[in-house]
Amino acid sequence: MHVTATAAAGPLTPRQAERRRGILRSATALAARGGYEAVQMREVAEGARVALGTLYRYFPSKVHLLVAVMHEQLERLHEQVRRRPPTGADPAARVAEALTAAFHALQREPRLAEAMVRALSFADRSVGPEVDGVAQLTGAIVLTATRLPGPPTAEQQAALRVVVHTWHAALLAWLSGRASLAEVRADLHTAARLLSPAPAASADRPELQPVPPPAAGAVAAAG
Questions:
Q1: Residue range 9-25: average pLDDT?
Q2: d(CA 12, CA 15)
Q3: How far is residue 41's CA from residue 52's CA, in Å, rounded to a whole number?
Q4: DSSP class of 88
Q5: 89: helix, coil or strand?
Q6: Helix axes 91-108, 181-192, angle to 10 degrees
Q7: What are the contacts of 38-44 at 24+ separation with CB within 8 A?
Q8: pLDDT-derived band of residue 94, with 50, 70 and 90 as boundaries?
Q9: Is the pLDDT of residue 1 over 80?
Q10: 112: which residues sit within 8 A by CB, 6+ positions away?
Q11: Residue 219 pLDDT > 80
């Protein structure tokens, strides 16, 4: 379980964990109804039936809170990918399938998606561990979707990072109206193809040789 603020000092008790889940449920409901601006800390506390001071002990700011909401949403997605693995023919197809499905889920809750992504974009150094947790979980989702037979190679690890960066950039572009869903799908498929090895060069195809520069005399004659 991902934890924040006071929870960093040690594991949460069952009562604290339930209180934290209630806070996240309250924030999620507000964000789904009205986006980032609708998530006001006092209203979150009222919805979770906790004191405002208690809320701030768990989450020092709205940004901390909404990044934690995103982490929780990604945990659910990760569990779905584990329970129902994508069935594409190769790692690239499986990753594209999983991320496209995730995008469709976000499309059904655009205000919630907007709130979470805005929180990520506003996050400063104080939210660094939480933002790192979101990035690591996104990478874990992508890695699970690949269904690789063994640990990823260094090249595949680099490709995974590119896919994660593309996912976040595409999500931001879609929410800001700079990319259509069709463009998002195309970008995700393009990035996912990096996870599949390029076909080896054909042995019967001769390697192209560099063209030698023209002789000095030929240049003079041309002039």
A1: 90
A2: 8
A3: 7
A4: -
A5: coil
A6: 150
A7: 38/111, 38/115, 39/65, 39/66, 39/115, 41/65
A8: very high
A9: no
A10: 28, 31, 32, 35, 69, 73, 106
A11: no
Please tell me the distance from the alpha carbon of residue 133 to that of residue 138, in angstroms, as a whole number: 9
- What pTM value is reported for the model? 0.80
Residues in the chain: 223
Q: Using pLDDT thresholds of 50, 70 and 90, give the confidence band for residue 100.
A: confident
What does the angle CA 52 – CA 56 – CA 61 come to, to the nearest 5 degrees? 120
Dig out the tokens for 39 from the structure: 């998530």
Average confidence (pLDDT) over 46-66: 97
Long-range contacts of 144-148, Cβ-Cβ distance < 8 Å, separation of 24 or more: 144/78, 144/81, 144/82, 144/85, 145/81, 145/85, 145/86, 145/91, 145/94, 145/95, 145/97, 145/98, 145/99, 146/91, 146/94, 146/95, 146/195, 147/85, 147/86, 147/91, 147/94, 148/91
